[in-house]
Amino acid sequence: MEKVPAHVTVLTRETIAQSPAFTLPELLRQQVGFTSLDTVGFAGQQAQFSLRGYADKAGALILLDGVRVNDAGSGFFLWNSMPLAAIERIEVVRGGASTIYGEGAAAGVINIITKEAASQPLAGSVGASVGNLGFYQGSFALSGRTNAVSYVVTGSRNEWAGWRDGANYRGWNLLAKPSVETPAGRFTFGYQFHDDYSENPDLLTPAQFAANPRQRGATQFTFEQELHRGWIDYHQTFEAAWTVSAKVFATKDNGYGTGFANVTTVQPGYGGTVQVDWKTEPWRRANTLTFGGEAVRQEFTQSSAFGTTVHDSSTLGFFAQDTLELLPKLTLAAGVRFDHRSTFLNVPFAFPVFTGGKENNVWSPKGSLNWEFAEKSSAWVSVSQAYRLPSANDVVSADARFASNPSLVPVNARTIEFGVRSQRHKLLGGSLAYYHSWVEDDIFSDPATFGNNNADAIRQGVELTLNSQPAKWVELDFSAAWSDAHFTSGAYAGQQQVLVPDWQLTGGVNFRPATGWLWRVETVYVTGQRRFNDLPNTLSQNTYTVVNTKLSYQWKNLTTYAAVNNLLDRLHEQFPTYNTFVTALRHNPAPGISFQMGVTATF
User: In terms of Cα–Cα distance, which of 66, 70, 73 is closest to 101?
Assistant: First the structure.
């Protein structure tokens, strides 16, 4: 990690197992700068998140085994489609990363890597969990390796009744990943299936919130989602100098929702990527040239009683980056990417009505220096330009209450970042990073127009992480993130962006009192969060603290655990909002205290 010129966090399988988190957003909210914006709890629907000043709209690219999985409509991710038990590790790369990964990576990249095959012919696990709020879960995993063939199969079924009335959730997940080594290279075939039913009990008025925060609001929303995703991955190294990686993928994602209107969403997609790494030693200095291309087709059709909107896009990108060792332990990297997107839009009923095509050409250069000044210690500086192209929900809507905006242009974020990190000593390690982004044509929800508009903005912040192991039986971690995201042009110039907290603090302690026992306690504190639609900033800011804990015991092939989220049962909101239609506060109460206990057997 000390070789990467960016602020990177890697969550291993061990870290995930230690966490009291029930879902991916709950796991990630303990990471510096990541704030969950869940409106229902338990990662229902596509829970939003804030990272490096992007919150109202998606700013980070999410990958699953290298495949783009951001929703074509919202730009966020169906979190519950990937259970924690099916994950090998998670890599969070903060900062502009469009040079290699393409558009949508202005805030960074979250790369989720699924479980890897065991080294023996057959290994597996079976688990069962129960809890309050009608929770239960069953899961299994099988994997193995024989000669040139390996495989991984995982599956789960879970259900919550929800903390609020009308917040039920049911979900199925299946992941299959066979792989074969051949003289021509390694081929991995992946398939993911997800099916869920979820409910959203709507916003509460201040009177309802004060009387009973667990009750339903005015409208009951329901959502059904069925997802199929498949991919083929190829990897081969030729004579220790050339490495070729290629991938083709296809997705079928259908959704159906009820509430103000019945809405059907169909968003198939397919594409492919190829990347080549060429290692040489000019002037006896290590050098790696990386180049490749990506082609993606994403279709989005949303139908309701008001009509049918369409947002179909085809994106073609090419990239190249060179990484050269200037001096021992000093590395320079420079690269550029070009993306061309053609989009067809059909907005038959919203204002303004629009049918036609749009073309976008974007360049994403980046340069960086990384200095490894000591063992497991490095400092870096980078300058980058990253883009986010308008998503379907930015431009069109199947809900006639909201305006369309086909004139939106891509978000252009120019960022400078520098930082330092060290893991040389167990007694104290950590990282410190500062970033400053000049953002042109930032896309935001405009409460004055009931649609989305462009305006310039500044995003800057400081991220601090600390970790310590003063004794074999105790481990400590702490993080602090300060963020400033404000508009610099337009009607809201000088105003802070909504949902982005001024401060996010996290802390955790792992105790190992005896062999096989682990007790973790962790907390997250968020303050200075503006309500959604609070432009200009006139309303009170949101602040909350959540404490979670987990106790686990491992004996031979059995692991048991008990976990509690929101241990202090604090009433709080992760997605505070203001209703512009009725010009009044509205509330999205997050779940109160919830607990789970379970057992897993491995073989």
Answer: 66
Name the DSSP class of 118: P
The CA distances from residue 8 to 109, 111, 322, 392, 591, in Å, are: 10, 11, 20, 30, 30
Cis peptide before 591 (omega within 30 of 0): no
Can you read off the two tokens belonging to residue 295?
């082609």
- Looking at the domain assignment, is residue 601 inside a domain? no
* DSSP helix/strand/coil, 73: coil
Bond into 536 cis (ω within 30): yes
Q: 555 near 516, Cβ under 8 Å?
A: yes
- The tens digit of pLDDT for each residue in 74-110 reads 888 999 999 999 999 999 999 999 999 999 999 999 9
Q: Which pairs with CB-CB distance under 8 Å and at least 24 residues apart come from 208-212?
A: 208/587, 209/587, 209/589
For residues 387 and 414, what is the distance between their CA atoms, to the nearest angstrom?
A: 9
- Non-local (6+) Cβ contacts of 286 within 8 A are 279, 324, 325
Amino acid in position 534: D
Confirm if 327 and 286 have CB atoms less than 8 A apart: no
Residue 198 is which amino acid? S
**pTM surpassing 0.90?**
yes
CATH number at residue 489: 2.40.170.20
Please give the Cα distance from 1 to 370 (Å, whole number).
11
Q: What is the pLDDT of residues 538-581, one digit of tens each?
A: 999 999 999 999 999 999 999 999 999 999 999 999 999 998 88
Residue 1 maps to a domain? no
Per-position b or e across 88-124, b if 16+ CB within 10 A of its CB: ebbbbbbbbbbbbbbbbbbbbbbbbbbbebbeeeebb
Number of domains into which the chain is organized:
1
Domain that holds residue 300: 8-594
Domain-located, residue 3: no
